Amino acid sequence: MSEKSNCAAVDCKNEAHLQCPTCIKLNKTEGSFFCSQDCFKKSWGVHKANHGNHREPYEPFKTFKYAGPLRAVYPLSPRRQVPEEIQRPDYAETGIPKSEFMARSSEIKVLNSQEIEGIKKACKITREVLDIAAKAVRVGITTDEIDRIVHEATIERGAYPSPLNYNYFPKSCCTSLNEVICHGIPDQRPLANGDILNIDVSCFYRGFHGDANATYLVGDVDEVGQKLVQVTRECLDLAIAAVI
C-alpha cells in the first residue's frame, strides 16, 4: 500500500494495513483494504461481491508438491466413451486389472506364433495412432485435445485405448511434459514454445496390448532440451540392439 487507507469494514475507521488477496489478483483497490483479519472476515459476505464472477482455478490436490514449475490445468474433460462392439480389457469398467494380478510370476511366458502375430497387430495399430498424435503436436494445442485425437484414432481401428480406466487412469493416453517423467494426465494446458512432450500410446486389440511412446520438441527447444532427447534416443537404440 503506497497510500494510507481506512478500513473498508462498515463502522470501522481504523487505518488499514491489509489488502484482500483476491482484489490484488484482480488489480482492484477500491474497498479492498482492512485493518485486521477480524474486520476482513466480518466483511467477507458483502465484500466478495466486489469480485464479480471471479473464481479461483479448480485445484483438487492443493497440497501436492510439484517437482518444477509445471502445473496441472483443471477441470479434466469428461471420460471419453468407447463403442460397445469394441473388445475391452477386464479393467475397462472396474478399473482393476485382475488378469494382470493373476498372471504375475517370476517366469516369462513363451508365446506361440499365433499369439506373436496378435501382439504384432496390436503394436502396428499403436504405432499408427502414435504417428497421428505426433502430427498434431504444435504450440497452442492442449494435451487434452491430443488425447481426443488418440482416442478417436484408436477406436477407428477397432481397438481400445489401454490407459483408459487402468487403475482408474482418466484418459486414453499419457502426455508427459518437461519435468514429468511418465504417465502424465492430459489436461487443459496449451503446449508452449520450448516444451518437451512425451506421448505414450497403448492399444488393446483382440486380447493383446501394444505400447509405444516418443518424445517431441514443441516449437523452438533450447540446446539442453534437444540434447536430452537426442541422447535418450541413442540410449534406446543401444538397448534395442542388445536384445535383437
Automatic annotation (TrEMBL):
Give one GO term, molecular function aspect: zinc ion binding
Q: Which PROSITE patterns match?
A: ZF_C6H2
- Pfam families reported for this sequence: Peptidase_M24, zf-C6H2
Q: Which UniProt keywords apply?
A: Metal-binding, Zinc, Zinc-finger
- Please list the residue ranges annotated as the C6H2-type domain: 4-61
Cellular component, GO annotation: cytosol
Asked if Zinc is a keyword of the record, the answer is: yes
Q: Which family does it belong to?
A: Belongs to the peptidase M24A family. Methionine aminopeptidase type 1 subfamily.
Name by which UniProt lists this protein: C6H2-type domain-containing protein
Question: What organism is this sequence from?
Answer: Rhizopus oryzae
